[in-house]
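Why does this matter for the project? Reviewers at the last site visit asked to see concrete outputs rather than summary tables. In response, this paragraph embeds two records directly. Each consists of the residue sequence and, immediately after it, the corresponding structure tokens. Nothing has been edited or filtered.
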Amino acid sequence: MQQQEHGITTGTTDVTYNLISVAYHALQGAENYSIYAMDAEQNGDDETAQFFRALVDEERRRADRAKDLLLSKLQAQK
């Protein structure tokens, strides 16, 4: 039921909505992990800082993939 509600309430397809949501949340996560990495660095914990920086990279790649898929889907709708 929830999948059908997105199109009704937002006027956009579920796939479009979901890809936008993935990109947004991935970038939000990257921003948070970047802050966590700085916190770890300030505490002299390089291992944990490196872990969080790796997460930032993963989230950015995830957001880029979602944006690429979104572009492809939107172009196909024309």
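We now turn to the second protein, recorded in exactly the same manner.
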Amino acid sequence: MNTINDDSIEIFNANTGEKLKLQFNKIDEKTLEIAPESGFKEGEEYYFVINEHVKDKDGNGLTKPSVVKVTCSKWTFRA
């Protein structure tokens, strides 16, 4: 069962609280590319959230959400 979706992985604009609509692109069995449909804005800060609804192949979920605050620069994220 695939638990990777826009309910289990979320990106929020840190200044406005807006939840961004995401696109998910499976690269291979271990790599998933996640990007907002509207793109990121340079200089904006975002919260990247992986919640406990994400499960591994054995059905085990996270014990608590993982949250990372990132700042979008011209070419990369800084966390």
